[in-house]
Amino acid sequence: MAAVTAGSGAGSGAAGSPQDTGGSTGGGGWRRPHGPLQRYYGPSTAEAAEAAPDPTDINGPHFDPEVFMTKVRSECPLGQLLAREAALGREIRALDSDMQTLLYENYNKFISATDTIRKMKVDFRHMEAEMDDLAANMAAISASSARVSAALQDRHRRGAQLAGVQALLRKLQALVEVPGRLRRWAGTEPARALRCHARARAVLRHYRHLPSFRAIEDESHAIMAELAQRLRARLRCGVEMLLQLEEPAEELSEEFLSQAGTRLEAELAALEAELPAADSSGTAATPPPPASDILDFVDRGSSAFVGTLCQLAGSYRALLPAGADAAAALVARAARERVDRYLRALQTFFLGCLGDVRQALAAPRPPGKEGPGLPDLLATLAASVLGQLKAVLAYVQLFTARDVAFASLPYFKGEFCVTAVREGLVVAFVRWLCRTARGFADGPAERGAPAAPPALLLLLARLCLDYENSTISYILTLTDEQFPPLESGPAVTPGPALCAEARAAAQRLLDHYVQVQGAAVAQMLRKSVETRDWLGTVEPRNVRAVMKRVVEDITAIDVQVGQLFEEGVRRAQSSDSSRRAFSVYSSSRAPGRYAPSYTPSAPMDTHLLSNIQKLFSERIDIFSPVEFNKVSVLTGIIKISLKTLLECVRLRTLGRFGLQQVQVDGHYLQLYLWRFASDERVVQGLLDEVAASAAHRCLDPVPMEHSVVELICERG
Amino acid sequence: VMWEPMGDGKKLMSLADNNILLWDLQESSAKAVLSSSAVLEGKGQLKFTSGRWSPHHNCTQIATANDTTVRGWDTRSMRQIYCIENAHGQLVRDLDFNPNKQYYLASCGDDCKVKFWDTRNVTEPVKTLEEHSHWVWNVRYNHSHDQLILTGSSDSRVILSNMVSISSEPFGHMVDDDELSDQEEQHQEEKIKEPLQDSVIATYEEHEDSVYAVEWSSADPWLFASLSYDGRLVINRVPRALKYHILL
Questions:
Q1: pLDDT tens for residues A316-344?
Q2: Best of A508, A524, A650, A651 to disrupt the B interface by mutation (most B CBs within 10 Å)?
Q3: Does some domain include residue A283?
Q4: Where do the TM regions start and end (chain A) (predicted)?
Q5: Among A248, A393, A487, B183, which residue's beta carbon has the most beta carbons within 10 A?
């Protein structure tokens, strides 16, 4: 304390020092106006924590006056101390005045807020009173207006009626004047006459049943007919004069046709506009109803459009007899285009049918209900395609019907029949069918795109085969009957060529089917061999589940193929006990083969023996083309899967029990697969090779006793 | 394990599961030091099945096969350069580079096909051969005449094919014009006019079991050997007519 008083020697300093300590902590707080806020929200606490708590920092939170004073006293000279004390005093005074100003301002604001609120309250009370008055007035107004309108209701109705009647009368008057007007303008201004007539025509037709209207209509028709005659005479003169001037007839006909064409197109566009707008968004559940009644639409279409067409045709023929060639060419072109369109329609139809079939195959079946059988699907597909083809032929026949004028043209008799119909339509369609079918086999598998389901491949193969057998010749004879080709006409694709194409497509599809199914089974086998630990496996107690699965899958494939293809020829079994005979055979061979562990000299013999045997047995082609019967297809699939098993086994090293497991599996497969293959020696041979390779790859080849193997298989 | 084809025999590459490891042999060849490696990322257990150095580009490229994909790697950065997806239906068994033509690669697989690829455009094979009736285990180009291709398959056949159209000499042996006399020139023009057709030269069916390896001899470019499961090694020669046709 003595030191403190000594330190603050000047008079104001003595008073200042207790204030000092009090004010400095307070000053520190005010000097940083957001200090408390910052402390609350965080960042300065970090900063403050970082800086070492400095007891001598006046503005810091850890200010300690004792420490501060000792430090200051020890460090600073007297002059500096005095200056500091003065500065502190000034700061304190400034802070005080700031505080007072802030207080005063706050108080002012508070007062003004209270005043404003009071004023608002008063004003709202006034407004309430005014709103009540307004409501009362409005009620009064609405009551009086209701009274007025009720009073005038009656008169209003009668006035409207009279207005309607007047409009009707005006229209009738206009109609009555139509013939007069027509007559007046027919001579001089045909355009106006036409317009007037067009306008009136619709109404007249509608009210035809009323006799008075009938009369008007007849009159106007007569006048218009006269007008048409006159115009036609003028046209004929014009045309004749042009022809005399040797204008080329084709140009004239072209011009005439183009004019007529625009007219017809306009009418067609009007008709189309009436149709419900094509639902491009596809969101509406049902299409909107047509704008006009369907009967009316058809009537208008047929009478107006076709009538105009006939008229034009007639006038054309009357005017330009020399234009026959152009006309024929035109008709020919129209015919060809029609045929093209029919072809495209056929193609889309076929694709649609295929899509349906695919959907039927892929649809999830409710449990307990069999899906559509493959023969049914095939029958429906074939029947629908054939039906569609016949319908199209019938349509096209209209072109060559007896009563049509241009059918007698040489073009139609000869070239049309052959080129357009036979080649362009029928042959092209059949070829396209074969190509598309092949596309299922060749295309998708390469790029890994979703491939066609195997059942679809089978179906298409059978379809192509049927086409080759019977349908193509049927179609061709039908076409020839309806459109007899000329003897000296252009070359015709012979039936056998098409049949060959169909057969090739069927072959390709069937091969692909075999490959796909074989690959599926092979993949299962491969996975099973690769993922099993063959070295350390235990003694086999039962057949592996994957083998049973393989047999089940092959049985399912057998059923599926059996639905569409016939059984096929199999190598005749020698006797019922042939199975047992074969197994005895293999068991008699088995000790000889696996003997190496017992007789050292045997390895040479067994190798020689097996090689000689291989020389005599036929080499098995694995991915060879299959024939069109069930047995051949299944043999192909079995060959592929067994060969995969062989190759995979050769890549692994087996322990003794691994070998025995392979032996058991092989026996099981042979028990169940022999009945599917066309030649059971094939199955036998492959399985023997599997066993032999396994024995080669085995560290300790001790085969299981044959009776035990049989026991295990029968149990499984 | 594959040695670098050129250079001083110091580098070699090995494939283990899904890693490619590049080794550097020390001077005394006493031990090998791992210089870089690359790992194949992907789901499931990916395993490299085979790989090959590319003899071009100063030996900085290798190609590997795993499942149905063929990938090319740059050995300087150990990153993948190109990737041929779905090269073969089930599994790619072997690869080989064309020794004379850059960017050409042949691969064979379990769909019984041999496909030739241009690595600049890996969406479509340049050519496909479908002569075998089961998995093709090996495909090899002849070291000097790259139109001769040897393939061995588990249908016990070895097929020698003449892939002239994609070899480096599609039009036969070219001779400089000023060396020829007039008669020879005419003859030569006739020969050059039409490119030779690709064909199967010969099918060797001496094996009784699957053929697992075929190789060309490095001493004599017309000699090749094939090995099958039953332990039989067969050595064959390219037919003489074809040999003279190619040489002359």
A1: 666 555 455 556 666 667 777 777 777 78
A2: A650
A3: no
A4: none
A5: A393
